[in-house]
Write a structure and sequence with these properties.
With about 80 residues, this protein is of the alpha+beta class. It is about 25% helix and about 30% strand. The protein has helices spanning about 10-15, 30-35, 40-45, and strands at about 1-5, 20-25, 55, 60, 75.
Length: about 80
């Protein structure tokens, strides 16, 4: 499947691109992260501590165990605070 993957804030800074199209066989977000971290060290650095990363699937907040079937867009970003 083909996914549009977006990176925000320090996740984008560590990976070095704001978005990319990814061809993947991943079934879940966790599988996708595992694939990405094997690409290059910059991905491994960005996803080293998943407790500091949030994910949205097609602009809906989700979890790393979520299935990717039918998803077009995956976004990774740090936790947000209000104020």
């Amino acid at each position: 499947m083909q996914l549009e993957v977006l990176y925000f804030a320090w996740v984008r800074e560590r990976i070095g691109v704001p978005r990319e199209t990814v061809q993947t066989e991943a079934r879940t977000v966790a599988d996708l992260v595992a694939e990405l971290t094997t690409r290059e060290e910059r991905y491994a650095a960005a996803f080293a501590d998943l407790s500091t990363v949030r994910v949205a699937l097609d602009q809906t907040l989700s979890g790393f165990e979520a299935e990717l079937a039918g998803v077009r867009e995956v976004a990774f970003f740090p936790p947000m605070t209000g104020g």
